[in-house]
């Protein structure tokens, strides 16, 4: 761990540590080992070792016989599985009972209906001691005690001498436990680094951060901490190179951009911000809330602010799928509403529950080949569960060969068939069977940004939804509101999917005022005046991405008036990019509604249908108290449209009455005063 050797030394007044003298009696780091005073105990053949490991992972808990059989023989138990399992347990019990263990440790393996339980003290098992120390270290972090946090997490990380359960690779339960422990280790690495920054000891964690960030290039929190540590070590150029490398890697591998935290630290490094060298983390900068925003920028928002209900629905769908009732969930929201962050938290929860999650990001690019998201998903599933994919029949591989050539070529079958061979139904059936086959064990497939999917991929979605009804397969598809509400093909697909009993939609709308207030408070402190919080909510329209961008650009001493006029360059460019993909008639409606004065509205009259589509797609809204008025959902979008799209041309007078007809209730009077005509066009921010 580089320079961390002294990190566990406790000074006067530091907390008492868990006992660590000598090696643990039972070790799962590397090869599973039971230590005797004279040397390691030979546990026997791989399956017997797997039985011991399964009981060790669940130490103190009863593991049912049926669960043990399905875990040890996950590809199908033999005829005499129960008898064989009993012989394994009996042999293990004899080995443990007849030999004293290292350090006087005591293990008990007993039958307790409906299965077996292994009793072991946490201090006698290295992985249990590791987890206990990490829990205590994270609790110390929550109490705001950096010395205790640093000491406990350093002690925990010294126990990690090798990846756990290395000799049991291929057993699903062991792979899941190893992945869970590794996630916990990375959490400890990050929390220890934050404590090191607070203590002025960043040089001690720098080698470790360099190693971990290289191994986990998509874990942006590690990269963020590495850049801070490199800057503190006088290596500004290395920190900037790391940022560019990460940005390029995310773009190439995931089709994604770096998050706000990395962009913020990049800007701080470029301007040599003093916050980077202070002992206080930028997440904890004190003082005036607006000053804190100016010097350090806002942190990543608190986990899933305003999205707990959506998370509960996703977790409920995963639980349903795990029981054998496959589900499809559409997660729909405008860009910046937190779809990706929601799915990150959902994926973490799935990993903790032992469910595999495969994620595919659909890029926005021309020339995407047919079924691209699905073929990428199949490639990832193949890598994750090769045995299940190897069981696919040759006839199915032949159909899929034009899409995923390696499935056919790996069998030495010679030249692959042409793409024009099978019809659409045959391809849909083959892809569905190939994806659902590995779902004999629970599997979650996430397709992000499906609004960019090709027509063939779109057509497969309702087909797969119906076929997955009796599987352990959960499909989560995200899409932006406008595309799925406006594009006829997407609307038809959405309707077809939601007609299935095993499908549902989770909409992500704007955050409520209390939710944006929570983010503002976390970023700027408790002293933010209520009127400033209200102004940030109104200006952002409840969009988390817009809110973060506004807080990053908030000037020192900002007032609500400053917020109402704020249009950060980064948000401006993002909105322009989004507008560039809208149809011309929708842009015409937006231009008309954004005009500050009806006399400056565009000359071309948009159609009533285009106005309805803009409202249906989440761009415009109707003021319920005054139905004659149309407003933008996001004031920032309104102002960008006003600056970029509204020309200085003579108005089209009928636009006013058109807007009124689109939103006015049936039976409204024919005559409308001119000031109401103007109100029909004037965009009003919603709260």
UniProtKB/TrEMBL annotation:
Residues 668-679 have a biased composition (Basic and acidic residues). It holds the Pfam family Trans_reg_C. PROSITE patterns: OMPR_PHOB (PS51755). Residues 1-21, 275-305, 666-687 are annotated as: Disordered. Signal peptide: none annotated. Residues 16-120 form the OmpR/PhoB-type domain. Residues 16-120 bind DNA. Gene3D superfamilies: P-loop containing nucleotide triphosphate hydrolases, Tetratricopeptide repeat domain, Winged helix-like DNA-binding domain superfamily/Winged helix DNA-binding domain. It comes from the Bacteria. SUPFAM superfamilies: C-terminal effector domain of the bipartite response regulators, P-loop containing nucleoside triphosphate hydrolases, TPR-like. Belongs to the AfsR/DnrI/RedD regulatory family. This is OmpR/PhoB-type domain-containing protein. It comes from Streptomyces stramineus.
